[in-house]
Amino acid sequence: MTEVKFEDLLSTGAHFGHVKSKWNPAFEPYILMEKNGVHIINLDETLKNIERALQFVRKVVKENGEFLFVGTKKQARDIVQQEADRCGMFYVVERWLGGTLTNFSTIKKSIKRLQLLEKEGSRIYENLTKKETQMLNRERIKLADQHRGIKDMKRLPDAIIIVDANFELTAVKEARLLEIPMIAIVDTNTDPKSVDYPIPANDDSIRTIQLIIAAISDEILQAIGKEKEEQAAEKAEEVKKAEEAKEAKIVEKAVEVQTADTDSSKENKVIKTAEKIKEASTKKAKEVKDVKNTEEVPAEKTEIADEEAKAEEITEGKEKK
C-alpha cells in the first residue's frame, strides 16, 4: 500500500481551500487558518480521516463488499476511471443519472438493453432499414457512455467513494436515502457531515485527487489479496483436517479389522481346543468300553466252565449208581 504522508499532501497542495466567502461553517473543525482570504486545511485532520476511511475500506472488503467510485468533474474523470479499473470496482465518470441508486431496477433494464444491442448477431438488427440501424447504433453508443462503469454491477454497492461531495450532491442524496456509507473528498465549501467518512482536502487539485484515490485503490487491492490468502489458508486447513479425518478413519478401520482377526483366531483356537477335548473324551470313552468288554468275556467263560463241571459231576454220579 502507498502510505500517504504529510509531506505528500503538502506537496500536492491538498491544504488549499476555497476563498473565505465560499466556506461552509460546518467545515470549521478542519480549518487550520486563513491566509490572504483563503482558508488553509489542517492536514493532520486529513491524515487522520484518511486512516479512518482506509479502516472502513478494509472492513468492507473483508465482508466481500463492492465499491462505486464517483467523479464526474473534469479533473477527476480519468483518475477515477483508472483507479477503479485497477482495483476491479465500478465507477461513474459521465453525468450522474438521477435514480442510479434509488431507481436501480430501471437502470438494470437499461443495462440489459445495452447488452442486447452490443451482442453480435442479435436478432434485433434483422430486417431493419439503414436508418433504423443507425438509430440503434446511436442508442448503443449513448447507453455505453452512460453505463460503461456500472455495466456489470448486479446489485447496489456496499460503499461509495466520491470526489467532491458538493459537486456530486445528487449521488450523496441518493446514497443517504438508501443508507449506503460514503467516503468523500470534501473541500471548505462542503458540509463534511453530509458523508460518513469525509476526507478534508483540496478537491480541485488533480495531484491531490490522484494521491488520495490511489491510496484507497491500493488499500482495496491489498485487502482483497489478504482476503484471498486467508481464504486459501482456510481451504488448506480444511483439506488438511479432511485428510487427517480420512487417515483416522482408515486407522480405525484397520484396528477393527485387526481386532476382528484376533477375535476370529481366538475363536478358532477355542474351537480347535474343544474339538481336541471332544476327540480325547471320545477316545477315552472308547477305551473304557473296550476294557469293559474285555473284563466281561472271561467272566462268562468261567460261568460256562462251572456249569460244564457241574454237569460232568452229575453225569459221573449217575453212572456210579
In short:
The protein has helices at 6-12, 43-62, 77-87, 104-118, 130-147, 169-177, 206-320; strands at residues 16-19, 31-35, 38-41, 67-70, 90-92, 159-163, 182-186, 197-200. The protein is α/β, with parallel strands linked by helices.
Detailed description of the structure:
By secondary structure, the protein is α/β, with parallel strands linked by helices. It has one domain (6-235): Rossmann fold (3-Layer(aba) Sandwich). 61% of the residues lie in helices and 11% in strands. It is built from seven helices and eight strands; from the N terminus they run H-E-E-E-H-E-H-E-H-H-E-H-E-E-H. The strands form two sheets. The chain has a five-stranded parallel β-sheet, sandwiched between helices. A three-stranded antiparallel β-sheet has the order 1-3-2. Helix 2 (43-62) packs parallel to helix 7 (206-320), helix 3 (77-87) runs parallel beside helix 7 (206-320) and helix 4 crosses helix 5. The mean pLDDT is 83.
* Share of β-strand residues: 5-15%
CATH homologous superfamily title: Glucose-6-phosphate isomerase like protein, domain 1
CATH fold topology: Rossmann fold
If you average the pLDDT, what whole number results? 83
Distance between the termini: 153 Å
Number of domains: 1
Instruction: Supply the number of helical segments.
Output: 7
**Helix content range of the residues, please?**
55-70%
Q: Under the CATH scheme, which architecture would be assigned?
A: 3-Layer(aba) Sandwich
Number of strands: 8
Principal-axes geometry comes out as elongated
Biggest beta-sheet profile = 5 strands, parallel
CATH class: Alpha Beta
Radius of gyration based on Cα positions? 50 Å
